[in-house]
Amino acid sequence: MAAAALPPRPGADATVSELRLTSLSVSPGGSLNATLEAVLEIHNPSPVAAFVHAAGRAEVYYRGALAADADVPPGRVAARGSESLVVQLTVLADRLAGHAAQLYDDVVVGAGDVPLTVRTTVPGTVTVLGFLKRHVVVLTVCDVALSARRAGIQSSSCRIRTKF
User: Fold this and answer.
1) Under 8 Å CB-to-CB from 130, ≥6 apart: which residues?
2) What CA–CA distance (Å, rounded) separates 44 from 13?
3) Structural domain of residue 6, as residue ranges?
4) What's the angle, vertex CA 58, arms to CA 42 and CA 69, rounded to 5?
């Protein structure tokens, strides 16, 4: 009876709906610091199950190199509900030092679009009818082109996977 009440694939999905460069500074020594703001949208398609998630992780990669990371705050998404989470990521120049020439080409020489991959991991529990529980992890990988000249994402493509 309990197995019939628990949907075969309960869970949630997450996408990066916005990614903005919120601050950029260059020190006299030439080091670059930037802050990115990512908006993570978590949607729970289940008509009967709530999704309570613990703190997760968000990571930003530039050409395969980890450029920034941050914690995703915990929260709760009601059945058929959605939640928007804002995550601040600080990009440090030392993480991008090996890609300085490529970054310069992307921002200055090219169209100004910086190719990034944003990965999020959000662990949580799906609860049906208040007592049937199942642990899930929502994994999202989004390839985005962040414009250094115009505000925000110029293009994006996301892949979502839920592990049970």
Assistant:
1) none
2) 7
3) 2-163
4) 155
Q: Quickly state the pLDDT bin for 14 (edges 50, 70, 90).
A: confident
- The CA–CA distances, whole Å, from 76 to 101, 128, 140 equal 42, 14, 18
Query: What string of H, E and C letters represents the secondary structure of 42-58?
Result: EECCCCCEEEEECCEEE
Residues 103-115: pLDDT tens digits? Answer: 888 888 877 888 8
Q: Would you state the structure tokens that stand for residue 92, as one six-digit string?
A: 């440090």
Joined tokens for residue 139: 């994994």
Task: Put residue 80 in one of left, alpha, beta given phi > 0 → left and psi -120 to 50 → alpha.
Answer: left
3-state secondary structure of 10: coil
Structurally, the chain folds into a number of domains equal to 1
